[in-house]
Design a protein that fits this description.
This protein has about 475 residues and is α/β, with parallel strands linked by helices. It has a domain of about 325 residues: Metal-dependent hydrolases (TIM Barrel, Alpha-Beta Barrel). It is built from twelve helices and 21 strands. The strands form four sheets. It has an eight-stranded parallel beta sheet with strand order 8-11-12-13-14-15-16-17. The chain has a seven-stranded mixed beta sheet with strand order 3-2-7-18-19-20-21. A hairpin with a 2-residue loop joins strand 4 and strand 5. The protein is globular. The model has no long low-confidence stretch (mean pLDDT about 95). Bound molecules: N-(aminocarbonyl)-beta-alanine (URP) and zinc ion (2 copies). One zinc ion binds next to loops.
């Protein structure tokens, strides 16, 4: 199978040039002007950009969480990803504290293997630490090529770990050359603040943000930085939402801590007023850390533009509004019974499953509200949505670039497309879109995964099961 992409403007994180791309089998074999080649498939990219396949380094597809399960599977999520230009997903493998790492890895991988239409890998969640877990983690890194861990400083009693476990995880990561990705919020501060607000009768989704204010997130970041400094481990802070959190990380970097900052698309597009929408609609926008005020959003855009923030992921975490989000409805008439509500107390915002679906929309939203507004340039766009994640997580130059010998994961992008995001047209498996009615300017007119066209103009035409588990390099 051969593929020729002609007449497009190639845009990578390092260069822009008009050239054709020829791919044989799964890889790019030639890049040059006016390539005179016949091919099984020819795509005319006149007037379009050609980007490297985009990488979403933070998604949840199979997620047992807050008494329920996320709504997508690898079939729906990989279709949505490819239509939106994302060719590689890195999912958080999130075992419960009682689950063995080896079993969890097998379970998560079984959800993707033979089903996913795009390539994938996992960050291995560490939700407890002892000798047996350590041995299993070593095996997962060495045998499976899973070269990043995930820890939660939040979600006490669920995925959250204590400081001894955090220290041991970072020590092991340093030894193995593994990056530790981390959700940074102080779990005790969250629990105490939630309890106080609920006792005061503040029960609606609008109280989610005040229950986890920026100070809670900044403390989580400083906490992680201290442990990274003590162990020398490399850390990657996921879903950074606000100025104090970014500043806690950048000041540690000045001290020599090896840390990278991720933000996620909801923080760049939505703001805290969305969770204040009446009639419980605010629940659609409940995620952690919470979506902040416009002041923080403006700051995040600036820090993306100047390179302080390295990646824009989604934190895709899909839950239905009418059933799952309603587990936290404070009106007993409207609340859906939450299985994990052991005391059967009246529902409140703390029972709303945290998360927003967005794997389909990240690239188009970042292009529309970043590039077309002039907040970030095209090369930064490619860097933060693809190349930097590939470099950070041991996939570059195979992924995240357009280079001879690299995987032929390519996005032919139409900057003239105009459309509106809607649940009615999305491929993600939720009953709502967090971006309903939001205008987009630009979308992929073709997405290829290892030389095969998988999406065309909003339609999935790929092959379920074609996606592979990617072996990644250590640092
Ligand atoms: O609210 C969020 N972020 N949900 C998904 C789980 C996590 O913390 O990443
Ligand atoms: Zn998280
Ligand atoms: Zn997440």
């Amino acid at each position: 199978m051969s593929l020729l992409i002609k007449n497009g403007e190639i845009v990578t994180a390092r260069e822009r040039r008009f050239a054709d791309i020829y791919c044989e089998g799964e890889t790019i074999t030639e890049i040059g002007e006016n390539l005179d080649r016949s091919a099984d498939e020819v795509i005319d990219a006149s007037g379009k950009y050609v980007f490297p396949g985009f990488i979403d380094p933070h998604v949840h597809i199979y997620l047992p969480f807050m008494g329920t399960f996320s709504k997508d599977d690898y079939d729906s999520a990989s279709r949505a990803a490819l239509v939106g230009g994302t060719t590689t997903l890195i999912e958080m493998c999130c075992p419960s504290r009682s689950e063995e790492p080896r079993d969890a890895f097998k379970l998560w991988n079984s959800k993707a293997e033979g089903i996913s239409a795009c390539d994938y890998s996992f960050h291995m969640g560490v939700t407890g630490f002892d000798d047996s877990r350590e041995e299993q983690l070593r095996e997962i890194v060495e045998k499976e090529g899973i070269t990043s861990f995930k820890v939660f400083l939040a979600y006490k009693g669920a995925f959250g770990i204590d400081d001894r476990e955090l220290y041991q995880t970072l020590r092991l990561a340093k030894e193995l050359g593994v990056v530790v990705t981390a959700h940074c919020e102080n779990a005790d501060l969250v629990a105490e603040t939630q309890a106080k607000l609920v006792a005061e009768g503040k029960l609606g989704p609008e109280w989610h943000e005040p229950s986890r204010p920026v100070t809670v997130e900044a403390e989580g970041c400083s906490h992680l930085m201290a442990f990274a400094e003590m162990t020398g481990a490399e850390v990657y802070v996921v879903h950074t939402s606000c100025k104090p959190a970014v500043e806690a990380i950048t000041s540690a970097k000045v001290r020599g801590v090896k840390a990278t900052i991720e933000t996620v698309i909801p923080y760049l597009i939505l703001d805290s007023s969305y969770a204040e929408r009446p009639d419980f609609e605010g629940a659609k926008f409940v995620m952690s850390p919470p979506i902040r005020s416009r002041e923080h959003q403006d700051f995040l855009w600036k820090k993306l533009a100047d390179g302080t923030i390295a990646t824009v992921a989604t934190d895709h975490a899909p839950f239905d509004f009418h059933t799952q989000k309603h587990m936290g409805h404070p009106d007993p008439e409207k609340a859906v019974d939450a299985k994990f509500n052991p005391l059967h107390r009246p529902a409140d915002f703390t029972l709303i499953p945290n998360g927003i679906p967005s794997v389909e929309d990240r690239v188009n939203l970042l292009y529309t509200y970043g590039v077309t507004t002039g907040k970030i340039d095209l090369s930064t766009f490619v860097a933060v949505a693809s190349t930097n994640a590939a470099k950070q997580f041991g996939l570059h130059p195979r992924k995240g670039d357009i280079t001879i010998g690299g995987d032929a994961d390519l996005v032919v992008y139409d900057p003239d497309y105009r459309g509106v995001i809607s649940v009615d047209t999305q491929l993600m498996n939720t009953d709502y879109s967090g971006f309903e009615g939001v205008e987009i300017k630009g979308r992929p007119s073709a997405t290829t995964i290892r030389g095969t066209v998988a999406a065309r103009d909003g339609q999935f035409i790929g092959t379920p099961g074609l996606g592979k588990l990617l072996r990644r390099k250590t640092r």
